[in-house]
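hiii so my PI (J.) wants the whole complex modelled not just the main chain, which honestly fair. so below is everything: two entries, each one labled with what it is. i double checked the lines twice but i was tired so who knows lol
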Amino acid sequence: MWNKVSIKKIIVAIAALMGTLLPFFIEDQYILHILISILIWSIMALGIRIVLISGHLNVAQASFMGMGAYASGVLATKLGWSFWFCLPAAGLVAAFLALIVGLPTLRIKGAYFVIITIGLAEVCRNIWMMWDSLFGGPQGLLGIPTPNPIKLGGLEIMFSSKMDFFYLALILFLLTVFVMYRFEKSRAGLILKSIRQSDLLAECLGVKIMKYKLTAFALGAFFAGLGGSFWAHYFTYCSPWDFTLHTSFTMLIYVMVGGMGSILGPIVGCALMMTLDEFLRPFKEFVPFIFGTILILVLLFFSGGFVSIPERLRKVLRRAA
Amino acid sequence: MTNSFLQLSGVTKIFGGITAVNHLDINLPEGMIMGLIGPNGAGKTTVFNLISGVYKVSEGSILFNNQDITHMKPDVIAGKGLVRTFQANVLFREFTVMENILMGCHLQTTTGMFMDLFDFKAVRRSREKIRGIAQDTLEFIGLTNLDDEFAKNLAHGHQRILGIGVALAAKPKLLMLDEPVSGMNDEEKTEMMKLIQKIRGKGITVLLVEHDMRVVMGICDRITVINFGTKIAEGTPDEVQNNEKVIEAYLGADK
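here's the output for the full assembly
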């Protein structure tokens, strides 16, 4: 037990150190961009997972990210807010939306909840498309400024290079992982998992199940909103086509391929699949086919996802020995 | 007779056009084991669901410990010290035995959800206290050596005992058991009867629904018989056994 924990911690520490030093070794702006994408989409995937462990599949996660992106974009372009105020505001807007939507809908289980989130995603997309004056319609919201420069000690960070964005993304990512990890390791994690197994029993043991479901939902939306804000200011525009149902489903595939059993799963899933996606760029039209095949194979042969492979191997070896 | 601990007066439940429970009165004094029996479909489990707040009461009132709990939600009712088990093996099947019991301890936690995110002394103390309660509960129900086993891998009898353990961990004042010995062999039934008496020995009042007459007659102080949602008899096991209406309900009338 103790061995396992310390090994895990060492791996995480090494990965974090490598991640931090990586941009110094990578001159290639293209690779840096992919790393940034992986970090930001992982934030979103983690949000899907924290709700999924309570048995609720939310396919409007991309819409929460979009809400954050648009909120941040509107506040920056129309009201001239600094990015450093837009960022938390975007998270809060997304979380607030999640609370409003979650209060009536999280009482509903299974396929019905999924259908409601599909509806939510479509509603969001249509609002962004139709409300030209505020959200810029189909071509999106343009001219979002890059983050305002900040001074850290003697160092001034201008956000003119990809490296600066990489570190900001890394900070947001680590913050998300940290909070989600603490949340899941606390009693709340146990309760969320218990709700998936029998919400009735949990309720009859005095658990206020709505409180925990809503918190998980809002937490996932909050970090998606932060990611969305980053995304908007990184690309300097946001478009309704970036945050569709398709985006959420792709994300879900990443979560399933990586494995939903642990926090590491969605991160591994995002890293693997997004890297693969880049390699498959010349065969763009086959990507849905290939991703679908991978998903089916993973679910057939190791339903715990890629992160469950070491555990499976250990079992096989033990049986062989 | 002592003051009634759980009091149902005129409780009625209507599903669509069907009256499942009809003006039911039950008085359960503190410290007793009361059995609720009746033929299949008599509405016993519905009564349980009404008391525990799973179903909404159509008419009538339920008092527990001199408090009106008629329209309260299940989690609030559990918080008052009225905890139930379920008929089938309803457990957190993917959790270990220990984790199941820890879930039962939920009401004993002294720190809230947000406090739990941090490693405060209060959080650690609360966690230690819970562990202690969980260990005591496991010892009480005799599953200490199975604490690491997944609930789904337990034998049927052990699953039923765990279900009761989870409820006990919530430190109930009144425990409602829904068919605790269903699907058990004679030996397991005897064990379960001992366990229920041990629970009463701790000062916990017990209300149980059960089909097995040997168990019911063996451990209950009082028995309420219902049929078609209406009470047809009440009394000590001897009284009930010789009641004509009861015999009629179970075996049918002459002619």
